Amino acid sequence: MSDIRLVAVSDEDSVRIAKIKSIGRPLKDSLVVDIMSCLCVKGFGREQCPSIDQWAAYAVFTGVVRTITGNRYVIEKDDFRTPYREFELDYALFLELEVAIKVGKLKLDPKFLTAMRKLALPSIHLGDGYCSGSYIQSYFRDVWPWLKINPATNKSVGYVGEGWQKKCRKVFSNLPEGTQESIRLCSPKIKLQTAIIIRYVKSRYLW
After folding, report:
1. DSSP 19
2. Is residue 22 exposed (0-12), middle (13-18) or buried (19+ Cβ within 10 Å)?
3. Angle formed by the axes of helices 53-69 and 83-103, to 10°?
4. Is-contact 40 60, C-beta < 8 A?
5. 70-97: string of b/e by CB count within 10 Å (b at 16+)?
6. Residue 17 in contact with residue 94, Cβ under 8 Å?
7. Are 24 and 155 in contact (CB under 8 A)?
8. Distance between CA atoms of 68 and 64, rounded to whole angstroms?
9. pLDDT tier at 130, thresholds 50, 70, 90
């Protein structure tokens, strides 16, 4: 097992990722969101988890990659610290996931991996020209705020809402068996990666 620190991707990689339009056989958005919800609920469990979207994404995607490759992901206090660097995190996470899927020894369920790629893929969001400018963000980060898996809005860390703990049991049972097994495999590694990112979040944010 190796310790990996994410770094900003090269300009060539960021341009290549920005041009990706297809991620394999399309899945319904509802299925992708169901997979994301169950993965977060089972991965975070009843322990503390980030309430901030990019750090919840970090915990989930590095957990999935750690499951595939065995590599542990660490983060230092100055990594991705400015707003400009934070959007680079989306590119870095997608690239790690993409490489892991191609070269990793553990092969997870194809539908699960397609959902992970869709959730991790950064895309450009055009601003309205008045109150907000254009920005880059993954689908995971688009969905995270309105799912309210972690309902804490005024704290940097919180817990999965009790309603989601109950809802996930039903949603999970309706997922394809292969997808269920992939979620079971990834959940313990997400817990380990969450513990790492929680320390970073608490050291960085005062709220």
Report:
1. T
2. exposed
3. 20
4. yes
5. ebbbbbeeebbeeeeebbbbbbbbbbbb
6. yes
7. no
8. 7
9. low
Asked whether the beta carbons of 62 and 93 are under 8 A apart, the reply is yes
Both tokens of residue 63?
């957990």
| Integer angstrom CA distances of residue 183 from 67, 71, 172 | 10, 18, 9
Give the residue-averaged pLDDT of 9-32: 79
Coil vs helix vs strand at 73 = strand
| Per-residue model confidence (pLDDT) at position 20 | 81
Read off the amino acid at residue 13.
D
pLDDT at residue 86 above 70?
no
What is the distance between the alpha carbons of residues 101 and 164, in angstroms, rounded to a whole number? 29
pLDDT of residue 191: 97
Residue 154 has pLDDT above 90, yes or no: no
72 DSSP β-pair partners:
3
72 — phi, psi (to 5°)?
-95, 140
CB-side neighbour CA atoms (13 Å) of 101: 20
The mean per-residue pLDDT over the stretch 5-30 comes to 78
181-207 per-position pLDDT tens digit: 999 999 999 999 999 999 999 988 888
**Token pair of 126, please?**
């055009």
pLDDT at 77: 78
